[in-house]
Write a structure and sequence with these properties.
alpha/beta; Transcription Regulator spoIIAA; 38% helix
């Protein structure tokens, strides 16, 4: 799996994933990418899954884990490009209730309000 990092909107980092997101090296790469983001205080993150070929339970678990870590850090995670099997997995597991998905990374980046990076008071 390849991970490409870019900034579509000020303060919003997009991680474009391509290939399978499954147990093993792929999940570890995603975890390391999130370690770096959190360390660098990037807390508004979009994970673009439009080029992901398949997701297994470990891949889904890693996305949920990343969501939780960002939330703990006062941030938020959005998904983009969830189609077909990936969309089905999110719905089947009810992860779509808290992992908000958008058709494109640009729409997901636009969903962050200026206050979404601030912790609730």
């Amino acid at each position: 799996m390849e991970i490409t990092k870019k900034e579509l909107k000020t303060g919003v980092v997009v991680l474009e994933l391509s290939g399978p997101l499954q147990m093993g090296v792929e999940c570890k790469r995603l975890e390391l990418a999130f370690d770096a983001l959190i360390r660098d205080h990037h807390t508004r993150v979009v994970v673009d899954l439009s080029h992901v070929t398949k997701v297994d339970s470990s891949g889904l678990g890693k996305l949920v884990n990343c969501f939780s870590r960002l939330k703990t850090a006062g941030g938020a995670l959005r998904l983009a490009g969830t189609t077909g099997m990936i969309d089905g997995v999110l719905k089947l597991t009810h992860a779509d209730r808290f992992l908000k998905a958008y058709p494109t990374a640009l729409e997901a980046a636009g969903s962050f309000s200026d206050s979404s990076s601030l912790p609730a008071s």
